[in-house]
Amino acid sequence: MALSRHLHFNGTTWECLLCDRAFKSRSALLAHCEYTSRHEWCGQCHRVFASSAAKKRHLQYAAVHQPKCKVCGRILRNKNNLRMHQQTHQPRNKECYADDCIQLFKTFSGMLIHLESGSCPSGVDETRIDGLARSFYRSIEFTTDADSGGWIYICNGCERECSKLSGLFQHVEDALDCGEFMLECLEGLREFIEEHI
Ligand SMILES: [Zn+2]
Ligand SMILES: [Zn+2]
Ligand SMILES: [Zn+2]
Ligand SMILES: [Zn+2]
Ligand SMILES: [Zn+2]
């Protein structure tokens, strides 16, 4: 493997140009790079960085550190995008909760979009979904007063507001941290909707 920037082999000794120090072996130089507090190190790439900002940029942009889809190998910009992208590989196996509808969905938020749009043969629409959500006994945990009057859905993990319940579910399906935070309550709501629709 070629030596990183800031490191140099002069034919006899292995040098750290940042510290102006020489080592007898490559492994001694690399050990220095790993353990010194004078500069930064990426152990996976064996690369040295003069500052933590430079290392941060490296972790953010180097292809090897980007989240990668295990199914198709596509590289995504961040974990949320990866999660969203991976849903495209998921089977459509969630059947619409309405009895007289056989449409299939990959995610619950996808089903909610269908129901809110009013295109479900059951006649369920956004008003009905909102009504169910509001009558769930834990609705205070995912709704809040809207500036414009009335109320609006809110993610209690990040305070993001959503005008539709599908938007809130989509958000927590995509944002891992918020998903964990809201999971129990929204799972309860999902079951409540399944029972009452
Ligand atoms: Zn050094
Ligand atoms: Zn690296
Ligand atoms: Zn993929
Ligand atoms: Zn339906
Ligand atoms: Zn959130």
Topology summary:
Elements (H helix, E strand, L loop, with lengths): L6 E3 L4 E3 L4 E3 L2 H10 L4 E3 L4 E3 L2 H10 L17 H9 L6 E2 L8 E2 L2 H9 L9 H10 L7 E3 L5 E4 L6 E2 L2 H10 L1 H21 L1
Antiparallel strand pairs: 1-2, 2-3, 4-5, 6-7, 8-9, 9-10
Helix pairs in contact: 4-6, 6-7
This protein binds zinc ion (5 copies).
One zinc ion binds next to loops.
Description:
The chain is elongated. By secondary structure, it is an alpha+beta fold. It contains seven helices and ten strands. Strands 1-2-3 form a three-stranded antiparallel sheet, covered by helices on one side. The protein has a three-stranded antiparallel sheet with strand order 8-9-10. A two-stranded antiparallel ribbon has the order 4-5. A hairpin with a 6-residue loop joins strand 9 (151-154) and strand 10 (161-162). The model has no long low-confidence stretch (mean pLDDT 92). Bound molecules: zinc ion (5 copies). One zinc ion binds next to loops. One zinc ion (ZN) binds at residues 96, 98, 101, 103, 114, 120, 122.
- Please indicate the percent range of residues in DSSP E strands (runs of 2 or more): 5-15%
Unreliable stretches: none
Widest β-sheet, arrangement of strands: 1-2-3
Terminal CA distance reads 61 Å
Instruction: Give the helix proportion (percent range).
Output: 40-55%
Structural class: alpha+beta
Rg for CA atoms: 26 Å
Order of helices and strands: EEEHEEHHEEHHEEEHH
List bound small molecules.
Answer: zinc ion
What is the number of helices?
7
Q: What's the overall geometry?
A: elongated
Number of strands: 10
Give the biggest beta sheet. 3 strands, antiparallel
